[in-house]
Amino acid sequence: MGDTTEGRGAYAVGIASIDAMHVELEERLAALTAAGDEPQAALAALQDHLQRHFSHEEALMQQSGFPMAECHAREHLSVVEVVTEVRRLLEQGDAAPLGRLAPAMLEWFGVHAASMDTALASYLKRTAATVTS
What does the alpha-carbon distance between residue 18 and residue 83 come to, in Å, rounded to a whole number? Predict the structure, then answer.
């Protein structure tokens, strides 16, 4: 957890590993938006990223004893369920929800990063400082 360098990117929270995941999420959403008529690979890559991203944050929450871990993890699960459903619908020939996915995810992510992830980062920084002092 000694991972507290100031991050870069629109959704930086000051924990390097989380900030890197946030940058990658932005990249995955941009790739999905640019995928055109063949979105399957970009959508699969987004879902893979979300699994890794959320697993990473949830491991940090568990290791640190983050008090809002359950609520935070439920948000993650909801997002994964939405992406899974969009993939299922796309496979059945219904591409309509796909066009709304990236903009909706960016809107959700802005709120999530500014609230849940910022709270997690603050907690990680505080608990790391307490442990080392």
Answer: 21
